[in-house]
């Protein structure tokens, strides 16, 4: 059904990177979600009343909240599609993260309420009545929620929507929860023991877990997280495959929401190369990133000495010392400034976050390392963190 609606309602549906196409997907998914959840809510209230089941009724309320969540998602797609302005030069795409937080908060609230009502049901059990109509409604609900999970996950990944992926997570949790309610309704009359309240607690735990997962993901996006390995690999492949580039370092990627990527990187070029030629190459690279990957890339050009045997020997020696600290540590921008009494070795050391040594401790280790070679060398080190 959703694929059919996509073909009928969305022009250029496969151009996922376009803002208007992305917004159209979000609006369509939200409207379909509102409709399906309201229908499921009405049917489950009927089933819960017939079966005298608090867990089915709670599941109905959960669907009503899902309809509200879809409404919030609809508003967030409208807000996040607004173009950048003077006050928000990086755009408004993070409205989706805020919407995900609101959805998750509603989910957590419902989970807590369901635990309360389920515990009350355990303490004051009532007879659960099996009904074929209720059975059919719950089975239909599971099928619908699985379908909602599939299309929200598929298109949420294609358009990079945190709200749609949050909805997918919520949908699969709902399907599992409803399956548990269905099993309770079937088994309770057979064993002459009311499982309704206990299953309600289990359902609530699934709901709380789903809410926690959505909040965690949304917080990661708001706080900023490392880019995917695939994105880093693609950026490195493009840069290092360019004629005239000797290497790259200090890559930083800022993600301001779907299709709003800003990045900076240092690119090493031969110091003997004509500066205008190198600068033109850098300009072309920045333009290609914008055109091909929709990344606003800023590239800093680092001229390096690549043909000095003495410099290369010292660089390799210091690189061994850096790797002794941690194999993921690295150095760059290595240069040498000779003097009458001593020689300064100036370079940057990249330290991953999992390395717990302080900069002072690392400095001491590296100074001990270079003194083994010659006491005339002094180290001037800038410490960087690994942002990818």
Automatic annotation (TrEMBL):
InterPro entries per the UniProt record, alphabetical: Cation_efflux, Cation_efflux_CTD, Cation_efflux_CTD_sf, Cation_efflux_TM, Cation_efflux_TMD_sf, CDF_Transporter
Transmembrane segments: 28-47, 97-115, 127-150, 171-191, 197-215
Highest taxon of source: Bacteria
Residue intervals of the Cation efflux protein cytoplasmic domain: 227-303
Compartment(s) of residence: Membrane
One GO CC term on file: membrane
Family: Belongs to the cation diffusion facilitator (CDF) transporter (TC 2.A.4) family.
Listed name of the protein: Cation diffusion facilitator family transporter
């Amino acid at each position: 059904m959703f694929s059919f609606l996509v073909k009928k309602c969305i022009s250029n549906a496969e151009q996922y990177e376009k803002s208007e196409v992305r917004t159209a997907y979000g609006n369509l998914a939200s409207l379909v979600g509102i409709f399906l959840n309201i229908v499921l809510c009405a049917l489950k209230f009927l089933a819960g009343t017939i079966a005298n089941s608090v867990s089915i009724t709670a599941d109905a309320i959960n669907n009503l909240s899902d309809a509200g969540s879809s409404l919030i998602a609809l508003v967030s797609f409208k807000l996040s599609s607004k173009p950048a302005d003077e006050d928000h030069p990086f755009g408004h795409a993070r409205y989706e993260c805020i919407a995900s937080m609101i959805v998750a908060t509603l989910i957590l609230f419902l989970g807590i309420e369901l635990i309360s009502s389920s515990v009350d049901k355990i303490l004051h059990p009532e007879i659960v009545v099996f009904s074929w109509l209720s059975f059919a409604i719950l089975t239909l609900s599971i099928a619908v929620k699985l379908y909602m999970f599939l299309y929200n996950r598929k298109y949420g990944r294609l358009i990079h929507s945190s709200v749609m992926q949050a909805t997918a997570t919520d949908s699969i949790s709902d399907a599992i929860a409803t399956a548990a309610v269905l099993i309770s309704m079937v088994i309770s009359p057979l064993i002459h023991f009311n499982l309704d309240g206990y299953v309600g607690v289990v359902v609530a735990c699934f709901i709380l877990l789903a809410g926690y997962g959505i909040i965690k993901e949304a917080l990661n996006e708001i706080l900023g997280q490392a880019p995917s390995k695939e994105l880093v690999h693609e950026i490195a492949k493009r840069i290092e495959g360019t004629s005239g580039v000797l290497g790259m370092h200090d890559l930083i990627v800022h993600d301001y929401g779907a299709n709003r990527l800003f990045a900076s990187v240092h690119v090493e070029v031969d110091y003997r190369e004509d500066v205008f030629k190198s600068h033109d190459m850098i300009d072309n690279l920045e333009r290609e990133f914008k055109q091909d990957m929709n990344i606003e890339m800023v590239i800093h050009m680092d001229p390096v000495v690549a043909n000095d045997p003495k410099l290369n020997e010292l660089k390799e020696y210091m690189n061994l010392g850096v790797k002794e600290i941690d194999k993921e540590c690295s150095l760059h921008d290595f240069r040498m400034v000779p003097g009458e009494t001593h020689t300064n070795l100036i370079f940057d050391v990249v330290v991953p976050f999992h390395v717990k040594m302080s900069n002072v401790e690392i400095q001491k280790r590296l100074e001990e390392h270079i003194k083994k070679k010659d006491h005339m060398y002094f180290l001037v080190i800038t410490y960087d963190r690994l942002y990818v």
